[in-house]
Amino acid sequence: MRCIAEPAPSSSPPEEAAGVPPVGLRGFRSSDVPAIAAIVAEALHEHYDPALYGSLSADWPAGFLVATDAADAPLGFLLGVSQVPGEARVLMFAVDQGSRHAGVGSLLMETFLARCRARGFRRVTLEVRVSNVSAIRFYTHYRYSVIDLLRSYYSDGENGYHMAVDL
User: Half-sphere exposure of 163 toward its Cβ, with a 13 Å CA cutoff?
Assistant: First the structure.
């Protein structure tokens, strides 16, 4: 396996804010689809069939985390799947623009990685746009490393990085 970039040294989480309202964490509900689809469109620049979210959550419901505000409205989500034995994949991960840099992404990632360890996974992978420098920085904080370049990976033709972390 070729490593293109090494993970950043461990430090404090990249998302910290004082005085931020509490964030809840729960599983996915079908009523979340409109809010999640809006977050995906804004943050990931992708549009998916709404039925996709429910079908992907069916195999591992605990892998689909939704961060919520005090009114239980989604602020962000992480959709993880397991398609390879011993390995999880972050299929989608995004936080609403107004909730970034407030610990929402850190809560989602830390909870997801803990669930992966509890389930016995040895590795977690994900893909990220090469232009998404803030996301790459976030992932390297969690010890993800770039393991491959994915040419024209996204629907608009942009390249992606395949990243992984060993648990």
Answer: 27
- Residue 33 inside a domain? The answer is yes
For 119, the domain range is 24-166
Hunting for tokens 């804010």 — which residue is that? Answer: 17
Q: What percent of the chain has pLDDT over 70?
A: 87
Task: Report the predicted TM-score, pTM, of the whole model to 2 decimal places.
Answer: 0.86
Q: Which residues pair with 24 in a beta bridge?
A: 68
The reply to whether 159 falls in a domain is yes
Name, in order, each residue with C-beta under 8 angstroms of 50's C-beta and a sequence gap of 6 or more. 33, 34, 37
DSSP E strands, the chain = 24-27, 64-68, 74-84, 87-95, 123-129, 145-150, 160-166
Nearest to 93 by CA among 50, 120, 129: 129
Below-50 pLDDT ranges, the chain? 1-4, 6-17
Number of domains within the chain: 1
Q: How many CB atoms lie within 10 A of CB 73?
A: 12
pLDDT (tens digit per residue) in 66-75: 999 999 999 9
CATH number of the structural domain spanning residue 49: 3.40.630.30
4 in any annotated domain: no
Query: In the prediction, which pLDDT does 27 show?
Result: 97
pLDDT value at residue 14: 42
